[in-house]
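Incident review: delayed structure delivery

Summary: a single-chain prediction request sat in the queue longer than the usual turnaround. Root cause was a stuck worker, restarted by the on-call engineer. No data loss occurred. The affected request and its eventual output are reproduced below so the record is complete for anyone auditing the incident later.

Affected input:
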Amino acid sequence: MAIKYKHNINPINDLFLNMIMDDVDVCDPENKRDIIEVCKGYFQYILPDENDFVYLQFDITSKNNIITITANNMVTALLFNGISPYGCDYIMKSNRFENNDGLYEFNKISKKLTLNGKEIKG
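Output delivered after worker restart:
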């Protein structure tokens, strides 16, 4: 059974799917620097302050043919969920971000993002 995927919902998912379809081994540690540079180039046009891409930190792992991309901080977690945050310095210190959807919080230990107390799975 195939999993249904819809483009243009989450830009980071689209970006990684396109890299995989272009035969990029996103799990190869030697490719991580290039992948980060692609992401930085992409996000510098989305973020209100183009210098905030310095907060882009994530890990890529593969197990049983399942690729997992894990955000290592609040700003990256928001970006990976299609949210362009503003005030990134404050967000990094507080691990909180509020917008019309509600309150986003990031747990540094579990690396989980929540919205109004409920975990976001992306």
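Verification: The mean pLDDT is 83.
Action items: add queue-age alerting; document worker restart procedure.
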